[in-house]
Write a structure and sequence with these properties.
Distance between the termini: 31 Å
Order of helices and strands: HEEEEEEEEHHEEHEEEEEEEEHHH
Bound molecules: zinc ion
CATH class of the largest domain: Alpha Beta
Radius of gyration: 23 Å
Helix content: 10-25%
Number of strands: 18
Keywords: Signal
Strand content: 25-35%
Number of helices: 7
Number of domains: 2
Shape: globular
CATH topology of the largest domain: Collagenase (Catalytic Domain)
Structural class: alpha/beta
Organism: Nonomuraea ferruginea
Protein name: Cellulose-binding protein
């Protein structure tokens, strides 16, 4: 019996098809439109926020009031995407913006827009789904023909696969034992491990493949617009290193997880030397003796993932804080975000690996410290503080193992 089972396994394993993960590709695109009312925002259509209803007063929206006739919004990707269906959620406020009389999707052929044949429903308070034969395009356009009033959209999803078939769990043989030791240690140390639902994993899944940050500027230093943008770029670059570990692994649906900085918290507005409104600014909201973005917008304080009292709506919520404290050595990390020294961060803006930040982001996804023990056969890795300064193979497999154990909550 045993021998037979082994032979069957050997025969069957290579025949198992690699499973491509269906995913909303829209969040990785750049949105644009024929017209946008000055108080609305075209970025609403792919911000990953599922609207509560067509008359959504809480989240960002795209609308064309007072323009009528043929209006469009479209998604543009840097490279061609394979898409098999799309879903749109119409904006309808029972006033100046109503569902369209009709609509259709178009793909960009390289020289012109081509209609995508399909059945196009116009329901309110729901996603309108259109399926079609697989297309490959760098632009997907939603063309709306107005009816009773102007038109608008709350969200557009372009469903396809991420091009990376999901590989089965296959750590290198020498890592199997230490990985098992780590997971047993995790399970015995954290009894609520599977009940807790605010890991970085949960935050990204709730957003449909992106992560929002608030910067807690816990320093008296000033920050220029250029420094603000570099702080964001550095955060995005470091965060991406962990996300790259996941691409195509264990049914993880995203190859690209955009990092949005939606807010900055400071003690004194004059420290921030910019006047544009690209981020929300929170002044003098002090918690733990440090500025914070308003709790009403924070996932840590709203773990059901709704933000009814966030002034900017759910699109301006933040999942994590990047808490930069003057004079701090070392760091801390958790589901609330990462904390490290502001001087260290500013001195390492161009570093390939900002190892303290990388380590703390690891904690935000559940990965533990190793101050009191070391798994068998591995000596040096990022999460064992001081023993490595970049994500090692062992770190990567520990990270994947977290998703492997949690993914069933997302049907994967
Ligand atoms: Zn640590």
């Amino acid at each position: 019996m045993r021998l037979l089972a082994i032979i069957l396994t050997l025969l069957l394993l290579p025949a198992l098809p690699a499973k491509a993960a269906p995913v909303n590709l829209a969040t990785a695109a750049t949105p644009s439109a024929s017209y946008t009312s000055p108080w609305e925002s075209v970025t609403a259509i792919n911000d990953g926020v599922d609207p509560p209803r067509s008359n959504d007063t809480a989240n960002a929206r795209w609308g064309t009031w007072p323009q009528t006739g043929t209006q469009w919004a479209e998604l543009t990707w840097p490279t061609a995407q394979t898409i098999t269906s799309a879903e749109v959620y119409f904006f309808d406020d029972n006033g100046g913006v109503r569902v369209p009389a009709s609509w259709k999707l178009q793909r960009w052929s390289g020289g012109s827009y081509i209609d995508i044949p399909g059945t196009y429903p116009t329901a309110v308070n729901a996603y309108n789904r259109v399926t079609f034969s697989q297309i490959s395009t760098v632009r997907l356009r939603v063309v709306l023909q107005s009816g009773a009033a102007s038109v608008g959209l709350l969200e557009v999803k372009a469903i396809g696969d991420n091009g990376n078939p999901s590989t089965p769990w296959n750590p290198p043989a020498n890592l199997v034992t230490p990985l098992n030791e780590v997971w047993q240690h995790v399970e015995s140390t954290y009894p609520n491990l599977y009940g807790f639902r605010n890991y970085g994993w949960d935050q990204i899944m709730a957003n449909g493949g992106s992560i929002n940050y608030c910067v807690r500027w816990d320093s008296s230093a000033t920050v220029t617009a250029a420094q603000r943008d570099r702080i964001h770029a550095t955060l995005a670059r470091q965060f991406k290193k962990w996300m790259d570990v996941m691409a195509g692994q264990e049914g993880w649906p995203y190859t690209n997880v955009p990092v949005k900085v939606v807010g900055w918290a400071v003690r004194d507005r004059n420290q921030l030397q910019w006047t544009d409104n690209s981020v929300d600014i929170y002044v003098g909201d002090i918690r733990e003796n440090a500025p914070q973005c308003v709790a009403a917008c924070g996932r840590f304080f709203n773990q059901n993932g709704t933000y009814p009292n966030c002034p900017g709506g759910a699109a301006r919520h933040y999942d994590m804080s990047l808490w930069l404290t003057a004079g701090m050595g070392g760091g801390a990390g958790g589901d609330w975000g990462q904390r490290l020294g502001s001087e260290y961060y500013m001195a390492n803006l161009d570093a390939d690996n900002m190892h303290i930040l990388l380590h703390e982001i690891g904690h935000s996804f559940g990965v533990d410290d190793f101050y009191d023990w070391t798994p068998s056969g591995v000596c040096c890795f990022l999460m064992k503080a001081g023993s490595a300064s970049s994500i090692t193979d062992f770190d990567a497999w520990m990270f994947r193992d977290w998703w492997r154990h949690l993914k069933s909550r997302y049907g994967r």
